[in-house]
Amino acid sequence: MKLKHVKWVAVLAGVMACLPVAAAGPAMEKARHTFAIGTNDFLLDGRKFQIRCGEIHASRVPAEYWRQRLQMARAMGLNTVCAYLFWNQIEPRPGEFNWSGQADVAEFCRLAQAEGLWVILRPGPYACAEWEMGGTPWWLLKNDDIQLRTRDPHYLNAVKSYLQEVGRVLGPLQITHGGPIVMVQVENEYGFFGQDPGYMSEVRDAVLAAGFDVPLFECNPPDLMKNGMLTNLFQAVNFGGDPENNFKKLRALQPQGPLLCSEFYPGWFDTWGVKHHYGNTEKYLADLEYMLSHDASFSIYMAHGGTTFGLWSGCDRPFKPDTSSYDYDAPISEAGWTTPKFFQTRALLAKYLLPGEKLPGVPATNPVVAFAPVTLQESAPLFDNLPAALQDGTPRNMEAYDQGYGCILYRTRIPAGAATMLEAAAIHDFGFVFLDGRRVGVLDRRNASAAILLPERGAEARLDVLVEPMGRVNFGPEMADRKGLIAPVKFGGETLKGWEIFNLPLDDQMLAGLKFAAIKPDANAPVFWRGTFTLARAGDTFLDLHNWGKGDLWVNGHCLGRYWNIGPTQTAYAPGCWLRAGENEIVILDLLGSEGHSIAGLEKPVLDELHPEKDFTKSRRPLVKLNLDSTTPVCTGSFAPDVDTQEIKFTTPAAGKFFCLESLNAQDGKPYAAVAELDLLDANGKTISHNGWTIAYVDSEEHVGEDGSAENAIDGQTASFWHTEWKNASPVHPHFLILNLGQPQTISGFRYVPRQGEGGGHIKDYRIFVGDNLVQP
Ligand code: GLA
Asked: Which atom from ligand 1 is nearest to the alpha carbon of 717?
């Protein structure tokens, strides 16, 4: 297969000119440099160029700090920065474009150029990135039938107009027009989602039609590159380790061209309630050195993670909401500080500079301040600050009420009577249930069912379900993640009719309308608290949220993100550029009720402190026992000892609501079992969506030494994995992982992705069970 080489020619003087020179302005500048994909190497001005890239998301860094972060990246030894665009931030409403503040990507690119960095642009339309719905706009979900990331014209037309706008604004910043943008990515890891090259070529053509004339590429994990692959589009591969083998997999599909790892992970992202992720630095440095010494190009994902401010944090599948901190254990920390990994990377990259290339000094970090605890004196109970109600016979998802973000309240009345079950078809994501303003329970998407027992009522009562959506799933078929109380809602088995709906978008307008007073609200009620703290001078600080339950917070009008006392994050990064010397205002929405509503400013973040005891849903695992004795396995066998994806077909399809993988022993004879990913195949061999899947039972999970949660086996990410305990205990085989599919499914087989890279837990012999009663209460 012959790659179609794109040749760009321009005039160049002297080595140092390799570094991009600041473009005078957005006008269509004359190209001063050229960039091309050569037979073996990337070619900058016709000469071999090893891309030493790192990912930084402009949206995750205060615009005032972009230059400092870019200088850090340059000082670390990078010559290129890679940036996603988030469609939903740039086009908040159809046809309404926002390129200001955190979304001013053109300015980010200009600053990158000024700081001597080239830019690889990843405009999407889909990004993933632990960002709300992977960057896809919620308003597409107002169309109940829309098929995201397909050739559905409702989707594609929106994609084309968005990309046209991206081309209008960022096209002039291409190297072909004097700017720093050298490459543009088409879509993102489409291989995880679909297999339609027609869709990919539509997106590619839309990128071209938008005026992008630099080389284009697509990226995928090693085992999914074939899916939807365009043979005349440059391929890059994403991996967290084992560069030698993963580049071999790339070469198998792309025999020529430079080798590019477009996402190389030094750490990983965090989700609420799960241990903070640390990368394996030794392995990271060794793999980086391998790529450097083999002329391969790479992009460190993330070089600097930053913070997912606002309500933009996404959710891993099937439902693992991402923290607002996106520190990612990256070499450049959330607040833009150096770390040991930063200096190790700098020292390593310094060994692979072009002749005459020098690394600039490490820039200063921003000042850090702390302040003693202050008590927020004023409060505005949410129930006393409701907008006008909408009326609806049956509750519908939030998007149907033209609302994208924030919370939404569903209200109705129920008769007096004995304790009665309230059950919804589903809850996306948390439904705080109140009777006459008193909280009586929480509907929790982490549980298999959205049901609670309402206590006895002496009189007719007001039923409120305050729904808090976390981010929309940003990965996999589940990303069409409509939020709210999902009907039918049954009370004692009867469908409840006649509802009032209250939009609570938590936007600037809503916050400006809140009526605060120095009153002591009901402890368990959802309340906005307001107070001030005074600083002698402005500086970065980390707001200590240990005393608070669950919600969102704002400082001087900036939404810093979500918080949740279960951790692992216990602080919120408050950038000094959004603070001032003197008085600063803080507003905190607590949906659970806070302990003493005081807050302090710390000099260091707390990113790794779990408090499962504070979780309003005590056990994330239903208290059930195995019930396999009377069940015959539908399949038994042995997995191959390597790390490739293995597809196992049953002789006869089996039906059931539960799927059980039992590991009988391991390839290395040790007591551990691990699974990176499990997919199930329906009667036609198609992959079954993970929507509504939960873990019904698991005999052992490691939570201390690493995040070995069972959910990692069904989150779609092959970099994360379920692993049985090894730190404080080593229970032996057999090990059991039982999935609750939410409803009976006909299963004809499954796909097993072993734990990737080194490390134990590779299962050898196994048995599979499918049925409706594999567990019992
Ligand atoms: C994938 C995606 C990225 C990000 C990483 C995990 O590879 O392409 O956007 O989600 O996983 O952080």
From this structure: 11
Annotated catalytic residue within 115, 263, 662, 677? 263
| Cβ atoms within 10 Å, residue 687 | 13
Helix (H) or strand (E) holding 247: helix 243-253
Q: Which amino acid is at 151?
A: R
Alpha carbon distance, N-terminus to C-terminus of the chain: 57
Contact criterion met (CB below 8 Å) for 94 and 154: no
Annotated active-site residue 460? The verdict is no
Q: Ligand 1: which of 87, 122, 126, 130 to mutate, judged by most atoms within 8 Å of the beta carbon? A: 130
Which is it for the CA torsion 143, 149, 153, 157, positive or negative? positive
Residue 237 has pLDDT above 70, yes or no: yes
Give the three-class secondary structure for 524. Answer: coil
- Which of 87, 120, 126, 128 for mutating ligand 1's site (highest number of atoms within 8 Å of CB)? 128
The total of other beta-carbon atoms located within 10 Å of residue 572's CB is: 25
| pLDDT for residue 29 | 54
* Rounded-to-integer distance, Cα 522 and Cα 477, Å: 41
The confidence band for 622, taking pLDDT boundaries of 50, 70 and 90, is: low
Helix (H, G, I), strand (E, B) or coil at 530: strand
Q: Considering the candidates 91, 189, 468, 500, report the single residue annotated as catalytic.
A: 189
What's the mean per-residue pLDDT of the chain? Answer: 93
Are 634 and 770 in contact, with CB atoms under 8 Å apart? yes
**Residue 313: both structure tokens together:** 């944090």
Separation CA 262–CA 297 (nearest Å) = 8
CB 203 within 8 A of CB 210: no
Q: Which two tokens stand for residue 649?
A: 């077909």
Q: Are 399 and 139 in contact (CB under 8 A)?
A: yes
Q: Taking residues 642-666, report their average pLDDT.
A: 93
Bond preceding residue 469 cis, omega within 30 of 0: no
What's the CA angle centered on 588, arms 584 and 590, to 5 degrees? 165
Assess contact for 17 and 33: CB atoms under 8 A.
Answer: yes
- Residue whose Cα lies nearest atom 3 of ligand 1: it is 129
Q: How confident is the model at residue 620 (pLDDT cuts 50, 70, 90)?
A: low
Is 189 catalytic? The answer is yes
Cα–Cα dist 659/772, whole Å: 9
- Can you tell me the distance from the alpha carbon of 569 to that of 321, in angstroms, rounded to the nearest whole number? 13
* Cα 381 to middle of ligand 1, angstroms: 38
Categorize the per-residue pLDDT at 25 as very low, low, confident or very high, splitting at 50, 70 and 90: very low
Is residue 599 within 8 Å of residue 545, measured between CB atoms? Answer: yes
Ligand 1 mean position, distance from CA 307 (Å)? 15
In this predicted structure, the answer to whether residue 752 has a pLDDT above a threshold of 80 is yes
Residue where the block lists tokens 């837990």: 761
What the block records as the tokens of 753 is 């992705």
CB 128 within 8 A of CB 188: yes
Tokens of 634: 């539908």
Q: Tell me which residues have their CB closer than 6 angstroms to ligand 1.
A: 127-130, 188-189, 238, 263, 269
**Could you check whether the bond before residue 355 is cis, i.e. omega within 30 degrees of 0?**
no
Ligand 1 atom closest to Cα of residue 128: 9
Number of Cβ within 10 Å of residue 165's Cβ equals: 18
**For residue 451, what are the β-bridge partners?**
423
